[in-house]
Write a structure and sequence with these properties.
By secondary structure, the protein is α+β, with helices and mostly antiparallel strands. The protein contains eleven helices and 20 strands. Helix 6 crosses helix 7 and helix 6 packs across helix 8. The longest helix is centred in the first third of the chain and has 22 residues. It is globular. The N and C termini lie far apart (60 Å).
Length: 442
Amino acid sequence: MGRLWRISPLLFIFFFPLTSLSASDTSDLFQQWCQQHGKSYSTEEEKLYRLNVFQDNYDYILRHNTNSNSSYTLALNAFADLTHNEFKLARLRGLSVSAASGDLIRLNRGSSLIESSNDPPKSLDWREKGAVTNVKDQGSCGACWSFSATGAIEGINKIVTDSLISLSEQELVDCDRSFNAGCEGGLMDYAYEFVIKNKGIDTEEDYPYKAKEISCNKNKLKRHIVTIDGYNDVPENNEDQLLKAVVNQPVSVGICGSERAFQLYSEGIFTGPCSTSLDHAVLIIGYDSKDGVDYWIIKNSWGTSWGMNGFMYMKRNTGDSKGLCGINMLASYPIKTSPNPPPSPTPQPVKCNLFSWCSEGQTCCCASQILGICLKWTCCELNAAVCCKDHRHCCPSDYPICDSQRNLCLKQTSNGTLAIQPKKNNDFGKSGGRSSLHQRYF
């Protein structure tokens, strides 16, 4: 198969030399690469180290790309200054450890087979049908499971409602803690369970991604913009059933993404080598064939500088029931039959006085008063909270006793007294505004 090339001045320099570069040429190339990807380093020692890593990756790419039998090419992408071990630590810790160890309990393992009376089309690309949002970037947070899950929900929502809405991975990272572990990994099945039990999920715009775990925003959690009614697990190691599922909608899958060629993949049909030890989650958005080679179309969550603007072709019909990189082992998809709920009403501020207010779901607490008249208000992020007498803290309504001396919120039970730490009230940047409010914790 002929190799595919993306021609740009910088990539021309990357690929067409057939011999190793001199130290001076490598340094110049590295400087161009740093400018292209906005890279800078805190010390000259760090920069020199990254230059050496870059050179090693360049040599590896050169050896691969001069192999005329390869169906895919590699490139000096945004990860070219990382060793392979560094890359794996940064990007490949997002699929549930139990999934990788083989001890996974799939919550919907007993799903019925997918039935279809028609032969599947020879090719399919859900992007052409408007069911795929733009490629996103998970950063160094191991949240690939959340991107795979939202991608599948975005797809089926578009198919059922004809509305493509980018959904919040951050809500899953922050709030889905029954089984999943935020940036430390998770599984798409559990994400679907969370969305079902929560009766929906918020949008990316309203609850944007931060590439780190933060406290669950309970107010955003109540915004049920898109719902699903269930989900199915595709039978393991059954590529025919996986194909039938993809004919109906985008499908979440687990793969092994820990090969060095995967890190530096540029374009073409990826054929490995790779193991079937699952460590990454992606989204199948279609399939096709080229020169007699069948492939899946994969949407990744590493930004648009990786692969073909964030997408990959991965060989299918390899003859191995597990599929290339284990892609047939852990596939699932959401089910949607019901319409989404009507839009939530616009959040209304909580008025403290004529000039001061707090956000919806917060409580006004007086920070300073004279003769029973409050001169300054602060906001407690809790709804219907108890304002402590120190005028600086607040307690939730189910822990209504403020112990300001010990900095605790208490409640009495039949077995004794339970305690939690209070919230610190947020000051207004100036009277009458709420733009400067921030959550602060002890």
